[in-house]
Write a structure and sequence with these properties.
The complex is a heterodimer of chains A (about 250) and B (about 80). With about 250 residues, chain A is α+β, with helices and mostly antiparallel strands. Helices cover about 45% and strands about 25% of the residues of chain A. Chain A folds into 2 domains: about 5-140, Jelly Rolls, CATH 2.60.120.10; about 155-240, Arc Repressor Mutant, subunit A, CATH 1.10.10. Chain A contains 8 helices and 11 strands. In chain A, helix 3 (about 115-125) crosses helix 4. The longest helix of chain A has 27 residues, at about 125-150. Chain B has 1 helix and 5 strands. Chain B has a 5-stranded antiparallel sheet with strand order 1-2-3-4-5. In chain B, a hairpin with a 2-residue loop joins strand 2 (about 20-25) and strand 3. The longest helix of chain B is centred in the C-terminal third of the chain and has 11 residues, at about 65-75. Chain B is globular. Classes of the chains: A alpha+beta (about 250), B mainly beta (about 80). The interface of A and B includes residues 199, 202 and 206 of A.
Chain lengths: ~250, ~80
């Protein structure tokens, strides 16, 4: 299928980039004119696999995706969750062999952007290249935070921390407000992301609910007591480096 | 190698209180907890709440019944046919 520009789809990317940096009108126009191929994918499907050498990047337009690795006995470690506006495999532009896999979590609509178009964009607009670099640095900051959580935070704080992070990421691209957001992941996803067992996740979610910090219903997370949730998580949003975040 | 079970109540801070201490030749090697109704499909299964020495496991499994749990524990103990 040939690639064509689709400004409506690409506005999600603009929204994401503008959540972490400023774009000029010209840069915004150039991004909106990128050639893309939009594809609807079912849930739980690989988009790119470890070992692949992709020639395109994947922009999430709708739904959730995750990066993961499989270790011994088929156990899965989820490395990150991704939401609309994210390009989870942006690094494939410069690091050519995938060292992990990317899969959909929910039904997902993605836009594939050819590497050559992104390379051309970043050559013509060095500031856009700098913003992509900034995005990968923030990606690394999120990894540091996950590492800290998994190594040193108890399950209660670990889950609370992830909830705070996902809420703020969704809020930053206009997909969440008033401490309420979609959370279309299973307890197994949470366990695989946070290095916990399903049993431990289930107990801990019950504790978080029992303490009145959150409500979970129909794939929606409500942070009923945001301040207490951030306190339980020892959550400091600095690492997300969001430009225009509304106060807690 | 013979395993000996001793029922205890355990303070997980959740309704998962029914538990068995598992001894091998007099040494405590594992703590199994029966999952309460809180756990939906997994209710009634046995969870390796703690394992010691070779029974320690970074990804604690859940077992359908105590026989299955004991077979898994025995296999990990020294002297088992496939022990490390």
């Amino acid at each position: 299928m040939p690639s064509a520009s689709n400004p409506h789809a690409l506005s999600m990317l603009v929204r994401k980039l503008e959540s972490i940096a400023h774009l000029s009108d010209e840069e915004r126009e150039a991004i909106l004119s990128l050639p893309i191929r939009v594809q609807a994918l079912p849930s739980r499907q690989d988009i790119v696999r470890e070992g692949d050498r992709p020639s395109q990047c994947c922009l999430i337009l709708d739904g959730w995706a995750c990066r993961y690795k499989i270790v011994g006995e088929g156990r899965r470690q989820i490395l990150s969750f991704h939401i609309p506006g994210d390009i989870p495999d942006l690094q494939s532009l410069h690091v050519h062999t995938m060292d992990h896999s990317l899969a959909t979590v929910t039904k997902t609509t993605v836009a594939f952007i050819p590497h050559r178009a992104l390379l051309d964009l970043t050559t013509r607009f060095p500031n856009v290249a700098a913003i992509f670099w900034r995005d990968t640095l923030i990606d690394a900051a999120i990894f540091r935070e996950w590492m800290t959580s998994m190594g040193r935070r108890p399950a209660y704080g670990r889950i609370a921390h992830l909830f705070c992070e996902m809420y703020l990421k969704l809020e930053a691209v206009g997909l969440a407000a008033e401490h309420r957001c979609t959370l279309p992941i299973t307890q197994t996803d949470l366990a695989d992301a946070l290095g916990l067992t399903n049993v431990h996740v289930n107990r801990t979610l019950r504790a978080l609910r029992g303490d009145g910090l959150i409500t979970l219903q129909h794939n929606t997370l409500i942070a009923d007591r945001w301040d207490e949730l951030t306190e339980a998580a020892e959550f400091d949003p600095t690492y997300l480096h969001l430009e225009n975040r509304a106060a807690g | 190698m013979s395993l000996h079970l001793q029922p205890v109540r355990i303070a997980t801070g959740t309704p998962d209180t029914e538990s068995q201490l598992v001894f091998a030749d007099g040494f405590l090697v594992a703590v199994l907890v029966r999952l309460s109704d809180d756990h939906g499909d997994m209710a009634g299964m046995w969870y390796l709440e703690a394992g010691f020495g070779p029974v320690e496991y970074s990804f604690p499994p859940t077992f359908t019944n105590l026989d299955e749990a004991q077979a898994w524990i025995e296999q990990r103990l020294p002297g088992a046919p496939h022990s490390l």
